[in-house]
Amino acid sequence: xxxxxxxxxxxxxxxxxxxxxxxxxxxxxxxxxxxxxxxxxxxxxxxxxxxxxxxxxxxxxxxxxxxxxxxxxxxxxxxxxxxxxxxxxxxxxxxxxxxxxxxxxxxxxxxxxxxxxxxxxxxxxxxxxxxxxxxxxxxxx
Length: 141
What we know:
The chain is α+β, with helices and mostly antiparallel strands. The chain is built from 3 helices and 7 strands. The chain has a single domain (8-140), classed as Nucleoside Triphosphate Pyrophosphohydrolase (Alpha-Beta Complex), CATH 3.90.79.10. It has helices at residues 48-60, 116-122, 126-140; strands at 8-18, 23-29, 35-36, 39-41, 62-79, 82-98, 109-115. Strands 1, 2, 3, 4, 5, 6 and 7 form a 7-stranded mixed sheet that branches. It is globular, with a radius of gyration of 15 Å. The chain starts with 7 loop residues before the first strand and ends with a helix. The mean pLDDT is 92.
């Protein structure tokens, strides 16, 4: 399949674990209530890994160490009647420290740590539940 540059975007995100507390970091959209993982689009010239790290820091105020999962999600969305295909590169990550959240004016989200055992129930989308499962399998192997 071929896409023109106006038909796709690259994003990156991370599933961040705090092993000491056996918790995983989620993002709650304050407008919709949707619970997901931190992610966002790459800035021009930015690497995928740098984008994932930056998005976690901006959206959640968390510094983390990343390790690649080899997982790419592909989503099709419509923005203002235009079809956009989004490629999301996912990392697993470990918590390092907290820092200040750096949200854009239009972003309304709250970071929330959830016990790993109950995180799947809290996540809104089936795709995020599957991502969590794959991360846990990767960590345990």
